[in-house]
Structures are given as C-alpha cells and as structure tokens.
Amino acid sequence: MGLYSLYSSALLAADRRSARPRPCSARPCSPLCRSDRLVLESIAISRHLARGLARTEMTDWPRHRSRSARRRERTVALFDRETQMAGPVVRWLHEKGSSCVGHEVRASVGVADLVAGVGTRRRLQNRRRQAPPVTASLQLQLLEFCSKTRTEDELRQWAPRGMSDLRRSAIQPLVAAELLAERSPGRWRARRQPADPFDVLIAVELKLSDVSRGIGQAYSYRAFAESSYLALPGSRVNASAMKMARHHGVGLLAVFTHRVAEIVEPAADPTALAWRRRMAAERVLEASTDRSRVAGSAPR
Q1: CA atoms of 62 and 66, how far apart (whole Å)
Q2: Phi and psi (nearest 5°) for 282?
C-alpha cells in the first residue's frame, strides 16, 4: 500500500468514527479535527523518511563503523598537506585584524609558514608608497645611522665589514631605491626612513602531526613576533598538545575546513627583540607580494 493510499484510508476511517452519535457531546463533532489530521500526516511522513534514511545508510555507509569514527576519518582526510590548512588560517588572521599576511617568511630564526601584520590599511598603503621593502639588516642599520649627515670617514669607521662591502651591500641598493643620497661630495644622509606599518606581528606554524617539532618552531618565532601559534588539524588537538603549548607560551589553533578555533592563547609577555621584529616586518611586506609562496610548501 502506497503512502497516499495509507493516508486516504486513515482519513476515511476517522470520518466513519466521527459520524457515529455521541450522547455525551453537546454539539455535533466535526468529521476530523485539524490536530488529528496533522498527527496522521506526521506519522505517515516519518515512516516514509525513516525507510528512506535507513536505505541511504545501508548503501552509503559501512554499518560496522560508528558515526563518530566516520567523522574523525573525514576530518583527517580533509588535510593531506600543510598547504591545505593555509586558507582557513589566513581567514582567521584577517578576522584578528591583520592587514597583511606573508607566506613562508624567512625570519632570522627560520622560515615561518605564516606571519601576519596587525595594523590599519591606511598605514600599510602609505608604507608601500613610501619605499619598497628593505629586507637586508645592514641596509636598515645604515639608514638609521644616516638619519643625520655622515662623512666618508664616519661611514668607514662604522662599516662592520669594511667600506667596500658597505658600498656594494648597502649604499648602492639604497641609492637605487632613492632612500639614501649624497648631499655633497663625501657626505651621506638618508632621504626617507621606512616606517613600520604594523602594531603586532603574529607568526603561525602549520603542522599535520609532529606536535613537538611544531611547538619548538613556534617557540623560536617569539624572537620576532609578539604572538606565535601552532596550527593543527582539529582531530590532532589533544590534552598533551595543549599542555606543551601552555608550557612554552605558544598559542594553539584547531583548524577545520571552514573555521579555526583558538584552543590556547599565547603568552602575554612578548619576548621579541627590536631589531629582529623590525626586520621581520620588512620581510612580511616582501612575502605578501610574492604570490608564488604558499605556506607549508618550503622544505624544513
């Protein structure tokens, strides 16, 4: 018997029962009240859906595996490579207020998968118009030294590796970038001092399973970033990983397909060194314009 036939026979039987006289009733009864109709409809539909769902489960899912086990397997299979985790983490960093995210940033203590600079868009645009990224530490140090006019003798005394190396590694590139100028013969001064467009740097290390190594790498990034995180697939986050992250002052992120959950917050006492922090900001600017870099793709 089909669903429509079952529904019709139920309605007919209810109409026959309601047509019988009821001596206790003060007024005639309706053939079938609205609540009874809704009950019959819900019973028929629920039976039909139950049969359909049972048929789907039998054909689509192996019956010997529990639903939680299948959910865990789907979560693990979502991320076969670290590069697949970069998208959700980048979106999470933008939600945290970052104006710029660099992939595979070569900092002074290693290569960080992701480094985000938190700041306003206006400051970032002004910095990009002001000067190209200055990624060599010697060039940044020379610009700071030449904040006032310096003579050739002062530069020769200041040069860490000699005057010839200073000319080749710092003076000539800065003159080409119009950041350093010779005001008069033998007298040098910086034309512009590139500003740091970021208030805070956030470093993230992506790992699929190696928690101890990821914690160590994220801990080393605290030398240049105010906050450092280890990002793991959601199925890999456990009590041991949380304990290790808290012990080292590293944040812990659980990464899913469309969202990221902050499980452990990083330590509130930043240990970033000023000159490493400044250099990392310039390299974030450089990495953010290089579309060939993808977080998690560089060999470690």
Answers
A1: 9
A2: -65, -35
pLDDT tens-digit series, residues 77-103:
468 888 889 999 999 999 999 999 999
Q: Where are the domains of the chain?
A: 3-19+31-60, 82-122+197-288, 135-190
pTM of the model: 0.69
Least Cα distance to 92 among 285, 227, 215 occurs for 227
Q: Which of 234, 231, 226 is nearest to 278 (CA)?
A: 226
Q: Does residue 100 contact residue 117 with C-beta atoms inside 8 Å?
A: yes
Read off the tokens for 147: 């904040």
CB of 113 within 8 A of CB of 295? Answer: yes
CB 112 within 8 A of CB 204: yes
Q: Are 224 and 272 in contact (CB under 8 A)?
A: yes
CB 201 within 8 A of CB 228: no
Collapse the DSSP code of 135 into the 3-class scheme (helix H, G, I; strand E, B; otherwise coil) and give the result: coil
Q: How many CB atoms lie within 10 A of CB 247?
A: 10
Give the pLDDT of residue 9: 54
Instruction: Give the residue ranges of the chain where pLDDT is below 50.
Output: 3-4, 6-8, 10-12, 14-15, 17-65, 70, 73-77, 300
> Is-contact 230 202, C-beta < 8 A?
no
According to CATH, what is the number of the domain 82-122+197-288?
3.40.1350.10
Residue 42: its pLDDT value, please? 41
Contact yes or no for 131/193 (Cβ under 8 A): no
* Closest-CA residue to 118 (of 135, 133, 102): 102
In tens, the pLDDT along 133-182 reads 998 999 999 999 999 999 999 999 999 999 999 999 999 999 998 999 99
